[in-house]
Structures are given as C-alpha cells and as structure tokens.
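Ticket #4471: complex job returned nothing on first submit. Input attached below:
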Amino acid sequence: MPPDDVFRECDVYTDLALEASERVRARTGREIPGVAVQEFSRDGIKITRVTIEDENGAALMGKPPGTYVTVEAPELRSRSRDLADRLSGVIAEQLSDLARLPPEATVLVVGLGNWRATPDALGPRVVEQLFVTRHLRDLVPPELKGRMRALCAIAPGVLGTTGIETGEVIRGIASRVKPDLVVAVDSLAARSLDRIMTTVQLADTGIRPGSGVGNRRLSVDRESVGAPVIAVGCPTVVYAMTIAMEAIDQLSQRVPQAGTLRSYLQGLDARGKQEFLSGILRPLMGEMVVTPKEVDADVEEMARIIAGAINAAFHPGITEDEVARYLR
Amino acid sequence: MPPDDVFRECDVYTDLALEASERVRARTGREIPGVAVQEFSRDGIKITRVTIEDENGAALMGKPPGTYVTVEAPELRSRSRDLADRLSGVIAEQLSDLARLPPEATVLVVGLGNWRATPDALGPRVVEQLFVTRHLRDLVPPELKGRMRALCAIAPGVLGTTGIETGEVIRGIASRVKPDLVVAVDSLAARSLDRIMTTVQLADTGIRPGSGVGNRRLSVDRESVGAPVIAVGCPTVVYAMTIAMEAIDQLSQRVPQAGTLRSYLQGLDARGKQEFLSGILRPLMGEMVVTPKEVDADVEEMARIIAGAINAAFHPGITEDEVARYLR
Amino acid sequence: MPPDDVFRECDVYTDLALEASERVRARTGREIPGVAVQEFSRDGIKITRVTIEDENGAALMGKPPGTYVTVEAPELRSRSRDLADRLSGVIAEQLSDLARLPPEATVLVVGLGNWRATPDALGPRVVEQLFVTRHLRDLVPPELKGRMRALCAIAPGVLGTTGIETGEVIRGIASRVKPDLVVAVDSLAARSLDRIMTTVQLADTGIRPGSGVGNRRLSVDRESVGAPVIAVGCPTVVYAMTIAMEAIDQLSQRVPQAGTLRSYLQGLDARGKQEFLSGILRPLMGEMVVTPKEVDADVEEMARIIAGAINAAFHPGITEDEVARYLR
Amino acid sequence: MPPDDVFRECDVYTDLALEASERVRARTGREIPGVAVQEFSRDGIKITRVTIEDENGAALMGKPPGTYVTVEAPELRSRSRDLADRLSGVIAEQLSDLARLPPEATVLVVGLGNWRATPDALGPRVVEQLFVTRHLRDLVPPELKGRMRALCAIAPGVLGTTGIETGEVIRGIASRVKPDLVVAVDSLAARSLDRIMTTVQLADTGIRPGSGVGNRRLSVDRESVGAPVIAVGCPTVVYAMTIAMEAIDQLSQRVPQAGTLRSYLQGLDARGKQEFLSGILRPLMGEMVVTPKEVDADVEEMARIIAGAINAAFHPGITEDEVARYLR
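Support reply: We reran it on our side without changes. The output follows.
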C-alpha cells in the first residue's frame, strides 16, 4: 500500500496480519509500537513473521497478541509443481516450529468452512487429505512407530447448515479427545487480489469471531479448548468493497484531475471516510466476493499443499509413499 | 425366507429387525417368545412393528430390546414421485410417533457414514437436506413461531477418515447441545436384495456397535448421550456372502439332485454349517458388497425421502415452500 | 444506469442485451435506431423483449440481430420456492414461444461451461436435470405418446479441459442427431450485481464467440449447426473491473468534490476513457470475477429453475411426477 | 478356474479376454485354436498378451479378433504408491507399444461411462486428469515442442442421461477432429473378484456393443471412426449372478455330499446348465453388482494410474512437473 493511501485510516477487512501491519505502517509512517516484523526466506520463498507483543500492538492491528507467520509464493499461479512442493515444505517447517510438540502428542485438525460453498471449502478439503492415525494406536506397524504422531481430524460444517456453533462442536470433541494441539484450517479474506491462493498464514493465536470467509462466530483458543490452537489459512477471496476502495484510491493517486477529490477525502477524519465508503460502495457491493473463475481448481491445489505440510510436520519420519500405503 | 432354509441356524448379517424375526421364526417354526410383531398399512404402504420385549427376545433376535418400525415400498424402484412422497409422509408419521416430543424440544440429527463412499453416504446426504433451525432461535420470523422445533444436524465422518470414534464425536457434541432427542441416520445392510433402497427402519434403541454398512464401533444410546436415540436407516447393500448363501439354499431346495447335499447340510449343527460357509464362501467374498449399479442416484433419492420425513416430523407446521424460503 | 454515467461511451462487458440497450440509451439519450424494446409482465414477473432489427442496431448494441427476452426476478434472493416455480413457468412459456416447434421435433440441449469451475457450471448442471427422451422413441409408454418431444442433451466440457472447441463438438454431434432445434445453456457475465442469479435471458441468435463466463470461442448458430439455436443463460458473475468502474462513476456523480475529476473524465473521448480505465483498473483486477459466496447453492437453484422450464416447454403434457417416474 | 468347473460350458460374463481364455481352456482342456497366449513380466508386474488370430478363435472366445494385453497387480489393494507408479509405467509402455504413433499424431481419448454412477465412472475420472494439448498447438512453449502429441479428450456421458448413443457422439466428434488414434477408457465387469480394481486390459479391437459396466450399445472401431481404436479398461464390478455361480461351483467341487448335484450338473448340456442358472439365480440377482464398499476411493486411484499412463505414453518427453505446470 502506498504510504499516502487516502483511505489509510479506514478499516479494510483482511485476515492477514501482514496486510494489517502494512496498513498500519502506511497510516502512521513508522514502526508499530508493540509489533515486531521480521522477514527472511527459505528455499527461495519469502516468510514474514509478525509478532504482536502486547495489547497496545493488538489494538493498533485489530488482532490478538501472538505470532503470525506468512509464507508467500506469488508465482504459484504459474502452477509449478516444484514450487508447490517447496511451499509445502516451508509451511511444514514453520508449523513444526510454532507447534514444538513432543513425539507422543495428539493433534486435532479442524477443517473450518462449508464444503458446499467453494470459496469457503479449503478447510474441509484439507481434512480429506490428511494422514489420520489416532485410531491406529496399537495397530501401528512396528516400522512406523516413533515416526508418526496421533493425528485426528474433523470438518464440523458451518452454523448455517448444522445449527451448531463450530466452536461448540470443537469444544465438545476436544473435551473427549483431549488433544495436545488443535490446528484450525480456514479460508481467509485478503485485502490484495495478489494474495488470493498464493499466501498462507500460520498463527498461534487461535481463531477469533468474525474472521474467515464464512464469518465464524466462534472463538477457538487455548482457553476454550484447553490446548494451544494454531490457525492455518489461505485467502480465497477479497471482498468486493475492498476492490472498489482500492480503485478509488488508485484514481486519486494517479489522476491529476482527481486532486480536488483527493483533498476532500484527505480532509475527512477516519469516521467521515468510513461514512463516505459506506454511502457509496456498500449498497453496490453487498456481501459479494471477488475470486478467480477457476476457484474450484485453486482451492483443490492449495488444499493439497496445506495437507501435505500438516502430514509432514506431524509425521516427520513418514514418506509420501508410506502415507499412500497406510491411508484409509 | 422359506421355513426349511438349510442355513436357518446360521447368522446372516442383517440390520433389519424384520428380517431377523423372519429368520428366527423360520428356524423355530413358531412365534418368538419376548417378541411381538404387528403389521398394518398407511396410505397403501406396509408397516411392520417388531417389539423386542425382554432379554430373551433380544438374545434370540441378536438385537437390543425396543421397538423397530419397518416401512416397505418395493415399488419405489419404478421411481414414482407420488409413492416417494407418500413414503416420506408415512415415515414422518411413524417418526413423530416414536419421538413424542413437546414443541419446545431440541433435536440433534446425526448423519452416520462416509460421504466419500457412496453406499455408506446416506446419513451425510440426509443431513445436507435438513431444515436446520436451532441457531435461528430469536431470529425466527414471528409467523413461524410454534410451528418448528430447534433442529441441528451434523455428519461426523467415520473413524477411518477422522481418527475419532463417531460415538466420541456425538457424545462430545451432545454434552454441549443437550438435545432432547438424537436421531441417527445410517446406511444399513440387509439380507434380501429386494429391500435395498426400498425399506426404511426406525428404531428407538439407538445404535449398537458393528451395525451399518461402515461397521460403526460406537454405541450411541440414551445412556451414552443422555437423551433418547432413534435410529433411522435404509439398506443400501447386501453382503456378497449373503447372496452366495442364498444361492446355495435355493439350489438345495429346488434341485432334486441336490438332495444328498441337502441332507448333509441338514445333518450339520449350527456351528458345522457356519464352518461350511466360512470355508467355502468367505475367502471368495471378502468384504465385498452387492449394490445397484445406479447406487449414487438411489442414495440421493432415499436421502430426499428421509430428509423430507424428518423435516415434516419435527417442523409440523412448516410447508415445503417455507423450508425452501428459509433454508440456508 | 443513470443517463450521465461518465463511462457511458466505454464498453462494459455484459452478455445481457437488456443491459446493453440500457447503456446505449443512456449514452445517446434516445431510443436506439434498429432496436425495439418492449416490456410486459407475466404472473408478476417482468419481461423485456429487445429486438435488434438490423445491422445498424447490431453495431450499436455489439450483439447480433435477433430477439432477446429477459426475465427478471430480483426477489429470488429471498429463496421463495413459489417465486422460483413461477419464474420457471414464465421461462417455459417464453422458450416455447421463441421455439415454435411441431410436436414431432427433436431438440438438442447443450450445457456449455466447465462443471469443475462453479461459476461456469450452470450449463452442465441444467443438463443433469433434463428429462431426456430421444432414446426412448419406440419404448415410450403409450400413455406418454404425443405429450413429449425427442429431447437429447450433452455437456461437452470446455476447450481448456478437452482440447476441442465446443463448437466443433456441437457441430459433430448435430451432424448425426440432426436436431430441429438446439438450445445452448450457459453461465453469463452481467454488468450489474443485482442481476446475478436473478435474471434469465433467452435469445434466438445462437452463441457468439467470446460470450459467457468461460469465454467460449465458438460460434454456434443456424449456419454452423443446420438448425435454429436458442441461447438460454443466467449471469453468475460480474467482472471485477466492471465493479471498479461503477464505483468510480458513483463517486463522480455523487461527491461534489469529484467535480474536477468528472469534468476531466467527461472531456475524454471514448478511447481516452478506455485508456484511463485500462491503466488504472486492469492491472488491479485481472480476470477476477465477483460472485456470491454461496455460488454453489445459487447455481444449483438456478439450474433447477431452467431445467424445469426446458422440461415443461418441450414436454408440454408431462407432469413433474411423470418426469420423476421415467427419469434415468 | 479349476479345469472341472461344472459350469464351464456356460457363458459367464467377463470383459477380460484373459478370463475368457482361462475359461475356454478349462472347458476344452487344451490350447484354443486361433488364440495365442503369451505371459511375461515387466518391473515385477505380470503381463498376459492374448491374441485372437482368426474368426474361429473369436467364436470360441466370444470376442473380436485382435490383441488383448492384461496387466495384473493384485497387491494394489495394499495401496502401495510405489506399486501404483510401476503399474502406471507398465501400462504406458504397453499402450505405446500397441499404438505405435508418430510424434505428430493426434489422439482422441474418450472416457466412457456415467460420472454420476460411481462403479461406471472410471472413464470420466480419467479424462479429468489428462494433459490435454491439442488446442495449444502454436501456443506450445518451444521447450516442449517435439516432446508432446496433440491430445484431446471428452466424456460423452451415457445413453440414459444424454439420449444419444455414445457411438454417435464419438463418430460425430471424430469426423471433425480427425484423430490418428482413439483411446476409449471404460469400467469393466470381471468374473473374478480378485481382479476388481487390480487389473487393466488394453485391446486394439475397439469397443463392442454390450461390454462395460454400463452396457454400451455402441460399436466404436476403426470402421466406424476412421482411425484405430484402443480400449483401456479396469474391472470395477462382478455381476452378482457370477458370484452365486462361483459359490455353487466351489460347493460341488469341495463338498463330497454334493456329488449327486455335481453328477447331475455335469450331465446337463450347456443349454441345460444355462437354464438351471437362469431359473435359480437370475430372479435373485437381477442387475445387481458386487463391488468394494470403498468404490469411490478405488475408482479415483485407478483413474490416477490410467491417466498417468496415457499422459506418459503420448507425451513421452514431459515430466510430471511440466504436466502440472501447463495443466489447465
């Protein structure tokens, strides 16, 4: 985001901490107090670790304190299998790092979202491809012992089709499974179209109400489920309103004749700008989303990448061939 | 079953109490002590109510005590929409009868089975078509108040793909939802090919381990979930071994030259017959099932019928148009 | 569209003749020579018949000469089953009117689009629900004779997944089936979000290259297939770029401080405006589409409506119960 | 088949030439005149090449003259990824051998069967995973030139859902695409349960009416499409009647007390035996099929294997990574 975005005070919905931090820095023109941002790369892939260190940083960012790791692979659109494999490997490494689990730990993966609404179906699609092992326990072939963890997984559906808060379902199951870690996989909304289907975020903060494509109302975190909760997500949509806002900003930046408009907008306070947007754009855009035409294929490919990463992170000694052999 | 079936002492796997009672009566040649069988019809559809009254009857039948209502519509194969609608209505009536719920009750429907294995997918397909209302509560339009119950529904998947016993999932969810009734919908195995996709069984006994196409290991009943449990199922398969057994029986009945074979078989005790079958048939048949080629379409149609019945039974004042309008 | 839309000279992609005519009229401020527009209503549903009478009208509209009937049901979003049924009936009536087929005619329905890309899957989903009868011919039960036509249907896939132009597939099949009428069903792109999933267009012009969500390159018309071709479509998306353009227009209309911008834009000629848009918006939007989050359910419902209309239009004497009975 | 199968004169439906030849040899006790059988192995996988050399052999085998190559991997049930890859490689090699195509040839792959009936869905599932290239022609990146052929593919559906004979569709398309080779992929019926999902047959004879799970009525061969036709198939079902027959045979072989039955059956001529079977078994079995409960997963896996083989056979210089990169 250019530092002089006319809407920089306005809330633009994004589930990505990376985008939120870009936005806050653009607005304030300096580093964010209480927020540390660290960039590095692995295997040619850019990783950004945003750490929200205190309540001050949380308020500025609009996200709970914790660590958010973003892995970006913009060239994924070219559908390189090799890049997809490297991306999966990097996610596995970062996930393993965040989780720090002993070998005998039990992991519960929750695939959030609605498998009958393609842009919201990432979580359920990931669950379908996991190497689930918790029920094998004593049946595990001796040659696999010590190389895999007890993994279980469920796609609980969404409130609109089950009538049950997803958070209630997860708490109910966790109370019986007693996992050492919960991993919640979800479809996200981003601010930038470039990040759709190319960026993955891992966060050790759990899931907050209102996030994700399907607007989960649940809070799923250490307090509510009794175990640490890592959220893994990938943006599958941008809200239509965000697009329109970006178009107007581009216009006011780049067209000299929009100077009066720009001055006017700059003269508004945050609330005035928000009202401006709501009045002009909201009625036009409703709850529509922007997504690739090929959304089905893109969700499928990203589910393969994330499921592969989860399998590798929690069953570190298992080869892909072994997964195939024992799967199902 | 003809009364002189040579294998009448042998266990033939069936989830239908009706078939079990036919079998026991054929074997013993008389009414079963502790088991009451009552036949009647509604709207041109045959209904049989088998009541297992005590532990004696339960041991003879191989099923827990309780009431099993079987609704049969063999002409459903001709795909009459009118018959399908009547069948749905009769199931609704019987379900409502078994449930005897006050208007303010909460119902949890559980769709057992694996949606990625078509013959086992009936439960999940039913869940997709239910009119779920529990989350609407205070949002219910005033004109619908008092005409619908709080219904919620989940398809928890199967042990092999989740790593969690279905029973654990249901108990976990029930501990939070606190339903007044649980309805568990499942794909069943029958003894007779005629009953595939044409017969529906309702039982107030809950679900026992080992029943259903997917061999659920769970027990889901009043004790384990804290509410009455009604099982609703339809046979989608017959085990291949059952077919072979029936072929041999037919042969020994109808071919005079099989007389020696028949005498030999008749001379064996139950255990001898079972060994005979295991030696000859089991290696041949393994875990294969017999099912219609068009199993996908048949499961879809039966799911529509059962979901319609559940919607009608628990939302007695709601028309189909209203369901469509408020659905989702 | 307001008559003073600043982009009124610019091409805004729409497959709907109704929207094209609104746009041309807004641009010129008067009726379009060579184009007749007639509005009426049936069963509470608004119908607009746009007739492009000559090449002059065709050039102004950017669409081939012919009759375009648009049926609009904006309240369909409330998911009224009753409105859906009325809409289906009105489409059937208009389709029957356009087709004017003798009872013994053969109809070939082609479901254009990619069933693995949900926003483009309308055509294939319609084909799945048709009452196909051409192969029954002499097998037709006597009681149905004279009440149904010979209907056949195919979903030929898309160039990217078959390697064959859809037009080649249809011509090849038509050369053998020799239909009296081809009906081509397709997902469309609209200009206005309000029309997504609520409007159906019928045109007797066939399909031109570049139309539809999937950018078909085919031309399917009377010349190429040897029979009249009626195109039936419903908008499932709006291009992201269209949205952004509308946002800027709204802005320049409604915000006084955008006056300078407006004057500047008004001062540009059509080409200048087009360049303005391409420079600012195209890089931002790429080939992204705007669509409802619930796109899967919406496509399913619209497919049910259109398939019902086709069944009713060509099998005028067949009840829904009879369709169900003989279907498959 | 044991050489003294009591039903050895009877037709047992199988699409596999290998099973037909075993059966004829068992019946006659010697080599079949006009039929050459050759066994060998590649990469640890057994291959049998049955060549029907003349009309005499064809009459005995009930199959048209030509070469039938059967590749067997019974251990595939253990789901070894490594075995699956080797199997795919061996099929590719055999397919390439049968086809003997110049590099500039055009190949049309036809996926027969109904994608809405899982046991019949193998063909369509294969088509979804092919690396389709015919439309790329001049767009082919220079680095791929000469390493891939022009491949196109279609899944034409089945008569019951399209109203058009599959043979008509293929002839129509072939008349426009003018392929140098047609490959028709289909779900087959076998005689032995062991061969379900573990055996693949390649035949240079085209497709005859009545073969395959869906009972295609088409004949697709060099005469009808103007190019050689290779049929590739895998058994997904055994007819229920075949199972019952095998059970009776086992019984009469292995149970001494079935001696009288056996003598009686042996005393019947072919027609008598056929009548015996029809009278006792047909009414019981109808058109039911025997299939694994996990039929969905099994069909998916076999489709992956066959699609991989077709991609490798016709694009010999393309790596899997390149397929992924250019796919779609």
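The longest strand of chain C covers residues 229-239. Closing as resolved unless it happens again.
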